[in-house]
Amino acid sequence: MYQPCVPASVQYCLSASYGNEELQNPRMFSIKSLTKPVVFILCLLPLIAGIYSIATNSLVANPVEDLLHLTGEWGLKFLLITLCVTPLQLTFKWLWIAKLRRMLGLYAFFYALLHLIIWVVLEQELDLSAAINEIIEKKYITIGIIALLAMLPLAVTSNRWAIRKLGKKWKPLHRMIYPIAVLVIVHFLWQVRAKDILEPAMHLGFLLVLLIWRFKKIVAG
Question: Domain residue spans in the chain?
Answer without folding.
Answer: 1-33, 35-220
